[in-house]
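When time allows, look over one protein, given below as sequence and C-alpha cells. The question is which stretches look regular and which look disordered:
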Amino acid sequence: MIELIDQMNQTVRLANIPSRIVSLVPSQTELLHDLGLENEVVGITKFCIHPSEWFQTKTRIGGTKNVDIEKVRALNPDFIIGNKEENTQADIEALMQIAPVYMSDIETLEQALEMIQQIGICVGKSEKAKDFVQAIKTNFDSLSANKKPFTCLYFMWKDPYFTVGPKTFIHEMIEQIGGINLQEIERYPEWDFSSNIHPDVVFLSSEPYPFKEEHIAFFQEKYPTSKILLVDGEYFSWYGSRMLNAPAYFQTILSELR
C-alpha cells in the first residue's frame, strides 16, 4: 500500500505500484518519461508534446481543461495525475470515480521539488526522483551565485496582451534569475500599456502564445529603453524534470543581460 497527502491536501491511496497511468499535465508527463515509465503511461493530453515519441504513440485523452472522461475510463487506469491550475474541478471529480488521483498545486520551486518526490513515491521511482531533486537544487544554487537584479515584464499572450504576476511558477522562475517582476497585482492580468512603467527587460514567451521576432518592434516602441528578449516559455513554466536544464538556459539569458 502506498499512501500520501498530495498538494491539494487529499489522501492518495494506491494498493500497488501503478501499471496504467494517465497524465493530464504536460510537464508532469515529461517527468514520467524521464523516470522511465514508458510502458506504464497509457494516456496523455493533446498538449503533452514532450517527449515527441509519446505524443505520436500514446492515447490522447483530450485537453487539459476538457478531458474525455470516457476515453480515460476505457484505458482502465490505476493512477491519474493532475494539477490544480491545469485541470478543472469537474473533470477531476469525475476522474476520481475511475482511479486514484494525485493533484499538484505549484507556485514555487520547493513545491515543484515536492511534487517530483511525491510522484516518484507513487510510481515506484523514489530513488530516481530523489536524484532529480538533488540535481535540480544543485543547478539552481549554482545559478543563484551569478544573478544580478533587474526589473522586467513577462508577456504570455497577444490580443489582448496578458502578463504574468505573483503566485505563479513563472513569477518564481523570474525571481530565481534575479528578476523583479513589475506586474505585482494579479496572476495573469491583461496589461495596460499606458501605465508609467519602464522595465529593464521585457520577456516575450514562446507559449502559450508563440511570440516571434516580428513582435519585437511593437514592444520596443512601447519600451524604447528596455531590452526585448524572446524566451522559451517551457523553461519558465514547466515544473517537472525540465527544471534539470532550466538553470543552464537561464544562464544564457543572464549572459545577454550583462
